[in-house]
Amino acid sequence: NAGVTQTPKFRILKIGQSMTLQCTQDMNHNYMYWYRQDPGMGLKLIYYSVGAGITDKGEVPNGYNVSRSTTEDFPLRLELAAPSQTSVYFCASGRPTNEKLFFGSGTQLSVL
Amino acid sequence: GQQVMQIPQYQHVQEGEDFTTYCNSSTTLSNIQWYKQRPGGHPVFLIQLVKSGEVKKQKRLTFQFGEAKKNSSLHITATQTTDVGTYFCADQAGTALIFGKGTTLSVSS
């Protein structure tokens, strides 16, 4: 099992560009999450999904969109990238409530 | 919104010294999970605490959940250089996991 796979690992965007961060898991987990991590700020929840076709906003959803068409994939879309979106993005997956999360290795994004 | 506060934000110790990080909330926590993130890495699950007053041990790590379920702590005995990293607590908020800001531990030999 590969676990949670994120691509790309690094990306530099210009202000106003768009991109999609890919996340896929092979553990048949229903729950998937997107977090961003800024230095000294911990992990902030952007969006999450409890199953295919169901998504919900987290703590900091503005400027992002998600979709969940399959159990395995949970892409994060950035529209009109802004410098404030410079961060490390982590995707995570888990089983229903009270189970641990498995994290991907992260995507380091810079918006210049 | 729901918040978990962690203190201290940073801690430097000499190898062999003990280390403790605290996680506090103004509201009752449903359950607490602890994660460790090595420098340049991703968070990795350490443990989950569910019951009031619960204490769990993993080798040199001791995890506690407060009696009122409003705080938790992670204590490392006799730190080693391999303990370096950021330790996060996280509270289950419905279907989402809300993380504290973490405590970054550095260890000098």
Radius of gyration of chain B: 13 Å
What is the molecular shape of chain B? globular
Gap from first CA to last CA of chain A: 36 Å
Portion of residues in helices of chain B?
A: under 10%
Strand content of chain A: over 45%
Poorly predicted sequence stretches spanning 5 or more consecutive residues of chain A = none
Low-confidence stretches of chain B: none
Strand elements of chain B, count:
11
Biggest sheet of chain B: strands, sense, closure? 6 strands, mixed
What does this structure look like?
Chain A is mostly beta strands and 112 residues long. Chain A contains no helices and eleven strands. In chain A, the strands form two sheets. In chain A, strands 2, 4, 5, 6, 9, 10 and 11 form a seven-stranded mixed beta sheet that branches. In chain A, strands 1-3-8-7 form a four-stranded antiparallel beta sheet, with no helix packed on it. Chain A starts with a strand and ends with a strand. In chain B, strands 2, 4, 5, 9, 10 and 11 form a six-stranded mixed beta sheet that branches. In chain B, strands 1-3-8-7-6 form a five-stranded antiparallel beta sheet, with no helix packed on it. Chain B is mostly beta strands and 109 residues long. The model of chain B has no long low-confidence stretch (mean pLDDT 94). Chain B is 0% helix and 55% strand. At the A-B interface, β4, β5 and β10 of A face β5, β9 and β10 of B.
